[in-house]
Amino acid sequence: MNRYLRTVIFAGCFVLLSGAGGLGQTVPKAGLPVLTTSAGQSADVESLNAVMEEAGIKYDYCDVPTADLLASGVGLAGKQSAATGFHVEVHTDLDKFPAGTAYKTVIIAIGASLKGMGASGLTLENEEARLKKLIDFCKQKKILVMAVHLGGESKRGAPGSDNERMIDAVAPLSDYIVVTRDSNKDGRFTKISKSKNIPLTEIEYVLGLVDIVKQILL
Amino acid sequence: MKTKSLAMAGVLLITALLAGVLAGQKTSPLTPLPEPLAPGRDACTSILVGKDASTDGSVLTTHTSDCGTCDWTWRHVSAADHKPGSTRQMYHIDQYKTWPPSEGLRWDLIKKSDAGYAIPEVPHTYGYHHGMFGYMNENQVALGESSIGCQRRMHNPTPTAGLDISTLTLIAMERAKTAREAIQIMGSLAEKYGYGFYDDGEMLAVSDPNEAWIFEIMPVGPLWTPKSGKPGAVWAAQRVPDDEVSVCPNESRIGEIDLANKDFFMASPNVISLAVDMGFYDPKGGKPFNWKKAYSPQEGSAASTNGRIQRLWRFFDLAAPSRKFKPETPNMDFPFSVKPDRRLSLQDVMDMTRDRSYGTPFDPVQGIRGGPFKNPSYYRQTRLIDDGRAEYTTVTQCRASLPGPIGGIVWISFGSQDTACYMPFYAGATELPKSFAVGDHWVFSRDSARWAFDYADFHVQVAYSEAIQDVKAVQARYEGELIARIPEIDRQALELYKKKPAEAARFLTGFGLNNAKTVVDAWWKLGDDLLVKYNRLYLYDTQKRIYERGKPATPDWWKKAVRVFDILMEPDKK
Q1: C-alpha separations of B47 from A140, A167, B42, B445 in Å
Q2: Do B237 and B168 meet the contact criterion of CB atoms below 8 Å apart?
Q3: Å from A126 to nearest chain B CA?
Q4: For a tag on chain B, would you pick the N or C end, based on fewer CB atoms within 10 A?
């Protein structure tokens, strides 16, 4: 292998690993404070939260935030979790970002779970409507929306499946997409990325998301 | 102030009226409405009975597959030989996923959910019966299940978790000769290929003719990768002493572990180190490591949750009333197992799966909760062992006195246990009824055995306190009398087995199929009979061709309760 080829491969790997996207788009610089949430109420948002904790990033989390709740900013207006169907966690450093500070980033873990939506009293239609309002608000307030799909191929489902509808509700409207390679085996996210000019990063394991969130949020 | 006083007087009046209404009824102090349980904490119950705790030396386990929307179908998987170098393809199995019957059978459609890898196949796999999980193989290795949850940070729904609990149970059935072997097989595969995906903390009751074990397994978090060199699961198992019984009602049951005592404990190599790494246990804290407190802690007691988590207390109280277990005792402080006051028979254990906590502080029909006909299904706030949502319930029976194919029996009951009937299928049977392999919750089908039991159950709800007596009479005939016949079936099968095992298998298969058809037909008829008998809430006597409009009689206390409610709801006079 000649030196030129090695240099090209090395540069390519660096671009991929550094989260700069494989399609030439520039990965946006996001910022704190950040809210994590779910599109479809699957357990994948727990993976996202584990990533945030591993990365040492303080975040707020709500499973079913409305646009109004998002507008209330850090601390989510002091809302408390219910026994089922509504969960809130506030981990943001309130010394740096006092309660009410507007979020700069929302990270949405895509993954539909009938069990999860059932527990939250949601239907697919409710969930789509909620997400639309949430993302519209983000656009209006210039809050960066990052979409992640970590569940892999088996949780993707057939066209028109619950999970696919959640992808349609979030990914094309997001500002940055990160997916596990297994989630993008059919190139679905690549197509969205190309057609909407949204930066996309593929990772092998969820562990790879740790460095990405550090890069874009810190 | 005046309004407050009036309101207080009203409350006192209603209380006094209700006290009067309920006078004469056997009631316990009314408990307030509990909070609902979180998903996964409101599912299956599994009971375990050691061989010296049963009347006939059987090791017994149960599983109430409580869901309400899940799959209920069953099938038999035949034993098979495999060529050297062959592999077993792996699939992800979602406990909750169902398909419309028009799309095909669940166990064919599962193959659409390829996990993307295969494991080396063993030279021979054993035959077994399975529903949502594996239950009984030809070696009398038997299973029951209960979801127990785990610390949130342990969940691993990512594709690095190559195994779910259902898949693990199927592989255990295919490969295990003993309960211990089943535990080692499941544990080692989960460590290597990662565990979680659709599931998190799970308990399995793993038994054979000699031992019953509680096996608990949990994921290790979403950041695990196969390249990490660390186990992709954490697990522990504890054996139930032979003369004791235990239970798992969606709560972790294993506490302190003594891995030096190999006869009673097994665990993955990371059993303590993971807890330390994840901050769930501090070895410098001066307390011994406690599995459930580290990985699946739960607060509260039967009393403090107003019955929300009363199944644990209820089981111990049923098994050993002399120990006077208190509902106020935090669930985490209950013992792992208990010696029952008397040895339990198969029928005792079946009856335990039908328990509705009657006569306890969590009685679902105390006061006016069950309506005029004391229907335990009206009040769904307290979580009972039988809460009517079971897809099916199993009682597995393993008997050391008989060869595997005859000694093992899985008794299957569809739907709510109180109105259904247990049907036996020997471990050596090579076929299950076709009516067990079809049907779902959304399409009524006379081809589906399960619907026969829901059909009867539906007609019991109308006048529960009356109709349940009709059901008990039919249960005594088709279940009680059959249990009494089992020793004779065993004897005949054993004679055939000694001459030619294949003949015994044919005999046992035929016995299971014939009996199931008889029972399913009887339950369709029971449903019809109940419809006619309690039609329009009258009592139709089909023999005398008369009906009584005053029966089933609405009790006086109910009529009074209605009057009290009317007073309560009376609009204010201007």
Answers
A1: 56, 42, 16, 31
A2: no
A3: 20
A4: C
CA dist B229 and B217 (Å) reads: 19
CB contact (8 A) between residue A154 and residue B158: no
* Non-local CB neighbours of B271 within 8 Å, separated by 6+ positions: B234, B235, B236, B257, B259, B289, B291
With CA atoms as reference, report the closest residue to B534 among B479, B467, B483, B478: B467
Q: Whole-prediction pTM value?
A: 0.90
Q: Where are the domains of chain A?
A: 3-217
**H or E element at residue A110:** strand A105-110
Query: CA separation (Å) from B138 to B130, B176, B429, B492?
Result: 12, 10, 8, 18
What is the full DSSP assignment across B159-210? Answer: TT--B-HHHHHHHHHHH-SSHHHHHHHHHHHHHHH-B-TT--SEEEEEE-SS
Return the exposure string of B391-422: e unless at least 16 CB atoms fall within 10 Å of the residue's CB, then b: bbbbbbbbbeebbbbbbbbbbbbbbbbbbbbb
Q: Exposed, middle or buried by CB within 10 Å (0-12, 13-18, 19+), for B87?
A: exposed
Taking Cα atoms as reference points, which of B103, B164, B202, B147 lies closest to residue A155? B164
CB atoms within 10 A of CB B250: 26
Contact flag B159-A51 (C-beta cutoff 8 Å): no
Q: What is the mean pLDDT of each run of 10 residues along chain B (574 residues)?
A: 44 47 44 48 90 98 94 97 97 90 92 91 98 98 97 92 97 98 98 96 98 98 96 98 98 97 98 97 97 95 94 98 98 98 98 97 94 92 91 98 98 98 98 97 96 98 96 98 98 98 98 98 98 93 88 90 93 74
Which residue has tokens 């211990």? Answer: B180
Q: Which chain B residues have any C-beta within 8 angstroms of a chain A C-beta?
A: 35-39, 92, 96, 113-116, 152-153, 155-160, 197, 200, 221-223, 225
| Closest among B532, B558, B559, B567 to B547, alpha carbons compared | B532
